[in-house]
Specification:
single chain, 111 residues, mainly alpha, Topoisomerase I, Chain A, domain 4, 2 domains, two-stranded antiparallel sheet, 5 helices, 2 strands, 62% helix
Length: 111
């Protein structure tokens, strides 16, 4: 279970609109005929392909975001010549990524 705060006003409105639609699922939409549909992985994948023009999945974006979070954290920490300290720095970055993505350290490091 995760709890996240959405600070982007546009995204927050979209999530609130989806939550206001009938049904249990948070991620849903109105189709062309006005019927409520649960957003399925295949729908998101099709939308991504239409927008991006190539085969990308939500996992690709999640992995990219984790890599970006790690790179930023490592840049904030700074370089070191000390191998032991470098390993600690990597673990600190991995732990931050794991926390942000709701993963374990092992999953974040592997990805």
């Amino acid at each position: 279970m995760q709890r996240n705060v959405i600070t982007d006003a546009r995204l927050r409105r979209k999530v609130e609109e989806g939550m206001a639609l009938p049904g249990y699922e948070i991620f849903k939409y109105l189709d062309q005929s006005g019927e409520v549909r649960d957003a399925k992985v295949r729908d998101l994948n099709a939308c991504l392909k239409e927008v991006m023009g190539e085969e990308f999945t939500p996992k690709d974006f999640r992995t990219w975001a984790g890599t970006l979070f790690a790179a930023v954290k490592l840049a904030e920490i700074g370089a070191t010549e000390d191998l032991q300290q470098a390993e600690k720095n990597v673990l600190e970055a991995v732990d931050e990524v794991a926390q942000r993505l709701g993963n374990t350290r092992d999953i974040a490091r592997e990805s």
